[in-house]
Amino acid sequence: MTQTELAQAVEVTRAAVSAWITGRAAPRPETIERIAAALNTDLATVHTRTTDTQAGLPVTWYHRPGYPDGGRDGGNAAAFAFDADVQVLARETCQNSLDERLAENGRPVRVRYTLHELTGEMLDAFRKAILWDELHLHYSSVSQSASHQKVGRVVDAGVRDMFEKGRLVLLRIDDYNASGLIGDDYDDGKFAAVVRRQLESLKSGRGAGGSYGLGKATLWATSALGMVLINSTLSVPHEGRTERRVIGRLELPWRSVDGSPYAGPAWLGRPDPDTPGAEVVRSWWADEETVERLHLTRDSDEPGTSFLIVGAHDVASLDQSTVDLDADEENGSDDDGIRDIRAMHRRLVEALGRDFWAAMTGGGSRLPLLEASVRTLRNGEVVIEEEKVDPAVAQPSRTRALRAFYDGTTVDRLTEAGQVALRTVPLRLPLSGGRRGTLGTHPAVLLVTEAEDADGISNQVHSLRGNRMTIKKSGVAGLPLGVNAFQAVLLVGHAAGDSVPFADEAEEFLRAAEPPEHDRWGQTEELTLRWSHTAHHRIARLTTEVNTAVKDLVAQPKRSGGEGGAKLRKALTVPRKTAPRRGSGPVLPELDGLDAEIGAGGEWQITAEVKLPRGDELPTMTPVVLLDVRSGSRPKLEWAELVAVDGCEVEDGVLRFTPRARRATFRGATDVASHPVRTALTRLVLELRAGKGE
């Protein structure tokens, strides 16, 4: 209805209607009654405006038409930046909730993950709620061309699982005390950045974790059907309302339905009358019954957003499985393992405790930033009770260290069990724009304490910044023999304190040094463009400073020599044999230490130390990583990352050593695509070869 038509129906001028719409005036009570009658709705709706009027166009799916130039997309490329892994999903979505926390009230953001398996009548009712009949032909078209598309094969498998096995797994992520998807449906704002756009990040906090706009893609990557439904309660009103702003987005590859081409994405919403033919849909203000049918009911009117992943699957869980696959095939098992809600529950709890223990830890004047929990249902019945993630259980040593820092109970050196030692280590920040020099020195905080069995791998440093999500996990190379097992925490940026010098600059610098996975600091394109191609050396120097400080704190103090000690040393002395005369050829650097572990993505993560001979000019060496086999040649793996830590530089995979250095350290990660078998079933061999390593 146009403004003129409404003015005629309620017997007022068009200028009066315009004034109502723009908020410059309000209609009288008797006029409101006539407005309700003209719009064919009830009087309460006109007064409260908490839901859309029932007179509007019905909610439906809008599929983006195919490109007029004939171009085709085989899926959303952003989704391929991450694996279909609930642990990756937990890391990205929880980070996003942390970034959108309403910090003014001082309360933590509360995030809850709900796994819900539907079967039977509940599954049928949900399919009806998402208008499956409108989608059926689109999914059928994708299935017919599945053999030619990676995304198509995943979607086809998801549809077959739903119908052949009669089940569907929903995974809902609710956050509370967050900003919600505020802003217009189309203009710049958080809503459009998440629902309409790709590679756009509009984060609120100065210490925000995300910067690429890729994290939201994990939602659709975790859905075997490519479907995510959204219900948001806004912290800032939009169109005069805040509750139950609902929309759905579907990510499918290009398809042809009844002779019409469709580009890929589709949206579930109410048709927008301001678009040509009222074809494009926008979000709508749903009633309580609708959000209940869509399994999007929120616990309260507290601001935040609920994302419902339809057809959740966890392909990466197969790498963690202990199931005998051969036995499953013989027994004709119909469970592929990737939709096991109990396993998914366990892996979500593990990921939240591993990556966000610091954000869930408080002490002194510092309050926790995050509360996280996981629960599992089947057809509305509890399968696993809601489990609140406890950082003291997930990471006891590191949690103890952080609390000691907040409480001001740290010591200078470890002398008793349970103590936490503190050192400051310098991060020398470069000048931007490629200029030479140092902007300033940011004092990062290093905490070291004894390790406990529940911590997992010992002798590691977990590094984090403002939002307190663990960014980097690394071992300490060259530890002396006999050190007690320890755990270390490195706090940088605002994690070290809001009043610490150059905290803002450190946040900006390290955020630019993170890849889309936000799991390390190193060379990135943004770091090169904004600072220089050598800016990552500042991070390498920080790592060196941290390792040196850790070694100093955990090394056993030397004891003064006495008569008893001298006698014992004499008794234990091993007679030396005369070393054979060596040839006159060049002396090569030697691999002297190796620390390796399997990373979260299935890659080998390696930290190696090299002993260097004396000399001003040292030959270049190439680190080559191989898999150990019982017979035949060893398969060679490719490097996904190879970076220098201390005493060397890396150029095109070759190590060039610093003149007059006595030791060098480098770090690397293998390319999972080059692994011929699952990493957990392999043994690693690292060789240091002269020259370019051929």
Structure overview:
Helix content is 27%, strand content 27%. With 694 residues, it is an alpha+beta fold. Residues 203-213, 321-334 and 560-585 have low confidence and may be disordered.
Question: What would you say about this model in short?
Answer:
The chain has 694 residues and is an alpha+beta fold.
Number of strands: 25
Number of H/I helices: 20
Overall radius of gyration: 30 Å
Overall geometric form: globular
Biggest sheet features: 12 strands, mixed
Beta strand %: 25-35%
Q: Percent range for helical residues?
A: 25-40%
Q: What's the N-to-C terminus distance?
A: 75 Å
Ranges with pLDDT <50 over ≥5 residues?
203-213, 321-334, 560-585
Query: SS-based structural class?
Result: alpha+beta
The residue-averaged pLDDT reads: 84
For the structure shown, list the relevant keywords:
25 strands, globular, 694 residues, 5-stranded mixed β-sheet, alpha+beta
